[in-house]
TrEMBL record, chains A, C:
GO BP annotation list: asexual sporulation; negative regulation of sporulation resulting in formation of a cellular spore; sporulation resulting in formation of a cellular spore
Name of protein: Anti-sigma F factor
Name of the coding gene: spoIIAB
Enzyme Commission number(s) of this protein: 2.7.11.1
Lineage: Bacteria, Bacillati, Bacillota, Clostridia, Lachnospirales
Any matching Pfam family: HATPase_c_2
Reaction catalysis annotation: L-seryl-[protein] + ATP = O-phospho-L-seryl-[protein] + ADP + H(+); L-threonyl-[protein] + ATP = O-phospho-L-threonyl-[protein] + ADP + H(+)
Highest taxon of the lineage: Bacteria
NCBIfam families xref list: spIIAB
UniProtKB/TrEMBL annotation, chains B, D:
Family, as annotated: Belongs to the anti-sigma-factor antagonist family.
Name of the protein described by the UniProt record: Anti-sigma factor antagonist
InterPro entries: Anti-sigma_ant (IPR003658), STAS_dom (IPR002645), STAS_dom_sf (IPR036513)
Listed CDD domains: STAS_anti-anti-sigma_factors (cd07043)
Residue ranges annotated for the STAS domain, each copy included: 12-111
Organism: Murimonas intestini
GO MF entries: anti-sigma factor antagonist activity
Length: 148, 111, 148, 111
C-alpha cells in the first residue's frame, strides 16, 4: 500500500505546546483505530522527544520544532526534529538515567521511555546542527482497520 | 495553578493535574518545594486521581521529592494511580522505592 | 506583545484529515481560554476552509493543505492555503448560496459560515496557483488569559 | 458506518454521527439515498442526539433530502438538536423550511 497518509506539524519550542502536539498526533493516529493503550504509549514517547527538543535542544530558546507523522500500512511513524545544540555522544545519551541536566529535575529516562513505548527508535544528531528522533509503532497487531 | 495542595500537620497532599508533562511539572515542582520549606513538610502524598497522562517529567517530580523527604527522614507515597500511570511508575522503578496504591492506602492494594 | 505563539500544520487533502485538522486547531487555541462556543465557531470556519481546499481546490486529488495558526494578543488567526485550481471571481464565490458543485451536495454556504463565525476573513486566490483564506477572531472579549 | 438507520413503514429515522463534516456526510448521503430508493421512503427524521459538530456539509445533507422528499410530497424533520447545532440550522435558514425540535416532537418545543 505504501505511505497512505501523512502530516507535518511545526510549532514554537514553548512548553505550553507540548500538550497541543500530543493532542494533534493522537488525533492523526485515530485513523489506525488504535487501542487507548497504544495512543497513551505514542503520546508518552512523543512528549519525551518534544520535551527534549525544548529543554536540551534549544535550552529554553524559542525556535521551531517539527513533528512529522506517517501512516505506513498498520505502522505509525513519527519523527521529531529540532535545529538545536545536537548530541555529542548519542550512545551515552540513550543510556538509562543519563542526563546532562540533573539539577533541572530531568530523570534521564526520556530515551528509555521512547524505547519502551515504541517498537523502534532511531536518533540522528550533529553537534550545533540539531537532532532527529524517528520512532515507529505497529498498531492493532493485525486487527482490522476500516474507513468509516 | 492546576491541582490542589492540602497540608495537615507536617504532611502535604498534592492533587496531581490531569496531564503531567514538562510544562505542568515546572509549576508543580516549584509549588511543592515552596510548601515544603514554608511548612517543614515531613511526608508527601501524591494523589493521581485526576491524572490521565504522565511522561518522565512526572518521574522527575517524584524522585526529586523522594530525595528531599528521604534526606530529612520523611516519606513519599502515591495513591489512586490508574493502570496507565502505574505502567509508567513500574517501568521507571518508582514502585520499588516508594509505596504506590491503586486506591486509598486503607484499601491496602499496594502494587 | 506581538505574535506570542504560532504553529503550522501541513497534511494530505484527504477528507479523513478534516476532523484531525479541527482537533489540532482547537487544541492550539485552548491557550486563549476560549469558551466552548468560540471553539465551536473556529472549528466550523476551519472545517469549511479545509473542505473547500479538498473539494474545490484539488477536486479530490491528494495534494498538501497548509493550516497556519497564530495567537496575536487575544486574537486567534488561522490561514488555510492550497495550491489547487484557484478562484476566478472571488466576489462571486463569496456570495451566499453560490456554488460551482451543486450536484455534489455543496450548499454554497461555506464562505457565509466562515464570515458568520469569525470576525474577519480575507481571501486571496489566483487561477491555477491556489487559494489562501485568512481568518481572525478575537477570543474572550477582554477576559483574562493566564499561563497555568 | 457510523450512526444508525431505522425504517418503520415508509419513514426513515437517521441517527446522525458525532461529527458531521464533508467526510462523514459523503457516507450518510449515499446510505440515505440508497434506503430511500430501496424502501420507498416518504418522510425522514434526522436525530441529532449524538451530534456535537456540524458544518455546512450537514446543511447540504438536509437540503438535498428535503428536496427529494418535497418533490415526492413527503416530509423532513430534525429532532434533538443541541444549541450549537441549532445555531447552524438557524443561520442557514433550515429552520424556515423544516420542523426543528430541541427534544422529541411530542414535547412541542419547535424552534
Ligand atoms: N533534542 C536533543 N538535543 C540535545 N540533546 C539531547 C536531545 N535529546 C536528548 N538529549 C541529550 O540526551 C540526554 C538524555 O536524554 P533523556 O534520556 O531524554 O533524559 P533527560 O531528558 O531526562 O535528560 C539529555 O540529558 C541530553 O543531554
Ligand atoms: N479553495 C478553493 N479553491 C477553489 N475554489 C474554491 C475554493 N474555495 C471556494 N471555492 C469556490 O467558491 C465557491 C463557493 O464556496 P462556498 O461558499 O464554500 O460553497 P460550497 O463549498 O458549498 O460550494 C465554491 O463552489 C468554489 O467554486
Amino acid at each position: 500500500m505504501g505511505i497512505s497518509n501523512e502530516m507535518r506539524l511545526e510549532f514554537d519550542s514553548r512548553s505550553c505546546n507540548e500538550g497541543f502536539a500530543r493532542v494533534s498526533v493522537a488525533a492523526f493516529m485515530t485513523q489506525l483505530n488504535p487501542t487507548l493503550e497504544e495512543v497513551a504509549d505514542v503520546k508518552t514517547a512523543l512528549s519525551e522527544a518534544v520535551t527534549n527538543s525544548i529543554v536540551h535542544g534549544y535550552e529554553g530558546a524559542i525556535e521551531k520544532i517539527v513533528v512529522e507523522c506517517r501512516i505506513e500500512d498498520d505502522t505509525f511513524c513519527v519523527d521529531v526534529t529540532d535545529h538545536g545544540i545536537g548530541i555529542e555522544n548519542i550512545e551515552q545519551a540513550m543510556e538509562p538515567l543519563f542526563t546532562t541536566k540533573p539539577d533541572s529535575e530531568r530523570s534521564g529516562m526520556g530515551f528509555a521511555f521512547m524505547e519502551a513505548f515504541m517498537d523502534s527508535i532511531e536518533v540522528t544528531s550533529k553537534p550545533n546542527e540539531g537532532t532527529k528522533v524517528s520512532m515507529k509503532k505497529k498498531i492493532g497487531c493485525g486487527k482490522s482497520k476500516f474507513e468509516r | 495553578m492546576e491541582g490542589g495542595y492540602k497540608i495537615r500537620e507536617r504532611n502535604l497532599t498534592v492533587e496531581m493535574p490531569a496531564e503531567i508533562d514538562h510544562h505542568s511539572a515546572q509549576h508543580i515542582t516549584s509549588n511543592i518545594d515552596y510548601l515544603i520549606e514554608a511548612n517543614g513538610i515531613r511526608s508527601i502524598v501524591f494523589d493521581f486521581n485526576r491524572t490521565s497522562f504522565m511522561d518522565s517529567s512526572g518521574i522527575g517530580i517524584l524522585l526529586g521529592r523522594y530525595k528531599k523527604m528521604n534526606y530529612a527522614g520523611g516519606k513519599v507515597m502515591v495513591i489512586r494511580a490508574n493502570p496507565s500511570i502505574r505502567k509508567i511508575l513500574t517501568f521507571s522503578g518508582v514502585t520499588k522505592i516508594m509505596d504506590v496504591y491503586e486506591g486509598l492506602p486503607e484499601q491496602s492494594d499496594r502494587i
